[in-house]
Each structure stands twice: as C-alpha cells, then as structure tokens.
Amino acid sequence: MTRFAILLGGDLTATPRLKGQIRGARVIAADSGMMHASTLGVVPELWVGDFDSAGSELTMQYRDVPRETFPAEKDATDGAIAVEEAIRRGASQIMLLGGLGGQTDHTAGLLGQSVAIARRGVACMLTSGTEEAWPLIGGRMVVDLPPETRLSIIPFTDLLGLDLEGVKWPLSKRDVPVGSTLTLSNVALGPVAIRLVEGHGVAIAYPPQHIDG
C-alpha cells in the first residue's frame, strides 16, 4: 500500500494519533499547507500550488523541496492538484491533512472530493488532528477508532442498506434518507465496521484527545 499525506492550509493539530497515522507516508504539500511540515516533522517530496499564500519564510526554509508552480487563475484548487499528483505517483491511500475546519465552502468541497477519490478506488481520509472524516460509498470499511469516540454518518445521497457495528447504537440494513439525523452523534466502542449497499456520504469522528495513537 502506498500512502500519501497531503498538507493543506486548513487547521491542523499535531496529535499523537495524527503523527501515528502519517508515519511512513509520502508527503506532498499544497501551497500554504507547507506550514504544517515542521510541526509534523516531515519534509515533503513535492510542493505544488500558485504560491500566493505560502509566505517568503516557508519559501526560504523549504527551498530545496521540488516545486511545481501553477497560475493563480486555474480550474482546480492546489489541494486537488496535489491529490492528482499523489495518484499519478501510485497512491492507494490519501490522507488530507488540514482538510477539516476553517471555511465551510472549502470543507464541503473537500468532503465531496474525498467521495470522488474513493470512487476511483483510492482510500481516503481527512483530518484536522481533532476531527476525522472518511468518504462512504457502496461496500464495507473498518475505521480504527478509540472507545468513546463520537461518530456521525452524514448522507450526501439516500443511503441504502446501512450496517453500523461496534457502536453504542448499531444499525442493520437501515435506509437513511438525505437530511436524516438518525446517524448523528453515535459513540464508538472501538473499531467500527460500516457497510453500505448503495449511496454516498461521509463518516465524521471526534477521537478523545486523551487517547495517544
């Protein structure tokens, strides 16, 4: 499995769990996402973007990192460009760091992008360190969560045949329409198994911060 961590410009808290999740991953920075590299103790193999928000200090500090520069007026975000480069380099799993919190339009766009990534057969997650999200498409996945993690399933389309195991309130073959609040604020008892027959959505989790790893 080839894992890539994409550094985005959103909020990021370098928790022990986050550092464990990216251990051994290859790293690409998207524009100002490079600001997280030092905190995480990583040096990206590539830095992409229009560099309109990277800052001169970052440019000097990481002057030896290969860069690909794109015009400010383009039809894709710097993060999307970084994702495409990771996939071109053989990514089988992509972690979007700094992909949650901040501007609602960017967060919503990234959640939708994660679904598109998953539909291409590439596993994906988003994290701010304190909040995590995974795209849901038809099939089964297991999310490794500490006990007492708050977990919500947000449908982007009607969800058909949803199974939820390893939680305080499990579900079996449940249909969840768009706009339903049925799957908000569940509680993980440990690793959670999610199975979906049809539909698209996201699982969002808030791991307890006293848990290391």
What can you tell me about this protein's structure?
By secondary structure, the protein is of the alpha/beta class. Helix content is 21%, strand content 35%. Helix 1 (16-22) links the parallel strand 1 and strand 2. It is globular. The two termini are 20 Å apart. The mean pLDDT is 92.
SSE arrangement, N to C: EHEHEHEHEHEEEEEEEE
Overall geometry comes to globular
* Total number of beta strands: 13
What portion of residues belong to β-strands? Answer: 35-45%
What does the secondary structure layout of this molecule look like, with pairings?
Blueprint: E1 3-7, H1 16-22, E2 26-30, H2 37-40, E3 46-49, H3 56-61, E4 67-69, H4 78-88, E5 93-97, H5 104-119, E6 123-127, E7 132-136, E8 139-143, E9 150-155, E10 159-167, E11 171-176, E12 186-196, E13 201-206
Parallel strand pairs: 1-2, 1-5, 2-3, 3-4, 5-6
Antiparallel strand pairs: 6-7, 7-13, 8-12, 9-12, 9-13, 10-11, 10-12
Give short descriptive properties of this protein.
about 210 residues, 13-stranded mixed sheet, single chain, alpha/beta
A few lines on this structure:
The chain is an alpha/beta fold and 213 residues long.
